[in-house]
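user: can you give me the structure for this one chain? tokens are fine.
assistant: on it. calling the predictor now.
[tool input]
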Amino acid sequence: MLLFFKLLIGHAVSDFVLQSDTMARAKLRHSELRATHGAGFPPWYYWLSAHALVHAGAVYLLTGSAMLGAVELTLHWVIDFAKCEHWINIHQDQALHVICKAAYCGLVYAAPNVL
């Protein structure tokens, strides 16, 4: 339970404290920011990838597992892409992220030497 609590804190900090308004808007595939800032503005997938990397870093730091960090990078990217495309809503987005954290705890408990 302690690891789960830590992972939830890491998620909250990464999603709501460390994600700037610019990042939240620029990670949208159809963001207006690129048109506003011009061709030199980084593309949406740079922003989404950077955001997912922050989450991956939190998972890695809290679990000590680079593999779980890589899994988080991939899953967070896909889940947030789905939210940005309006395939899922904010509540489904957050529920999926929490489910991922619970799964990581299960993996750490079930196979601590593998990760």
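assistant: here you go. The chain has one domain: 2-21+49-110. The CA atoms of residues 56 and 70 lie 6 Å apart.
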